[in-house]
């Protein structure tokens, strides 16, 4: 059994890395299909997106629903447990925006505009 020194280590192990927090943040607004996530996160590859979603599903944070139709349809959504990360993700987002203001004087100089639905829940 792995030992941890502080809870931050555990949190970062589960949601850390380049993409997981971004994927989770987009899922806080509701169910998304794989292609929707790819549009929201254009720099991620299909392989990496699938891998990250599988890891999040394994950890009980994301639920995957497969609709057996032609063509097959798959949707991802946060589980109730995954929704408990919402305040963490909102805090990450707010801290990042404040940091951009501090460094650049105006976050709009470097922060792309997200669709309005992304900020609905803040």
From TrEMBL:
| Pfam families, per the entry | HxlR
Q: Where is the HTH hxlR-type domain?
A: 6-104
Please verify whether the record's keywords include Plastid: no
Instruction: Answer whether the UniProt record assigns the keyword DNA-binding to this protein.
Output: yes
InterPro entries named among the record's database cross-references? HTH_HxlR, WH-like_DNA-bd_sf, WH_DNA-bd_sf
> Which keywords describe this protein according to UniProt?
DNA-binding, Transcription, Transcription regulation
* Molecular function via GO: DNA binding
Q: Which domain of life is it from?
A: Bacteria
Name of this chain's protein: HxlR family transcriptional regulator
- What lineage is on file? Bacteria, Bacillati, Bacillota, Bacilli, Bacillales
């Amino acid at each position: 059994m792995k030992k941890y020194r502080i809870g931050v280590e555990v949190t970062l192990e589960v949601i850390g890395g380049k993409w997981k927090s971004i994927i989770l943040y987009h899922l806080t607004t509701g169910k998304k299909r794989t292609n929707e996530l790819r549009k929201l996160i254009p720099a991620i590859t299909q392989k990496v997106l699938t891998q990250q979603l599988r890891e999040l599903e394994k950890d009980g944070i994301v639920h995957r629903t497969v609709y057996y139709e032609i063509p097959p349809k798959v949707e991802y959504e946060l589980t109730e447990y995954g929704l408990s990360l919402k305040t963490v993700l909102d805090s990450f987002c707010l801290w990042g925006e404040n940091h951009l203001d501090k460094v650049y004087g105006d976050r709009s100089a470097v922060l792309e505009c997200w669709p309005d639905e992304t900020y609905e829940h803040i």
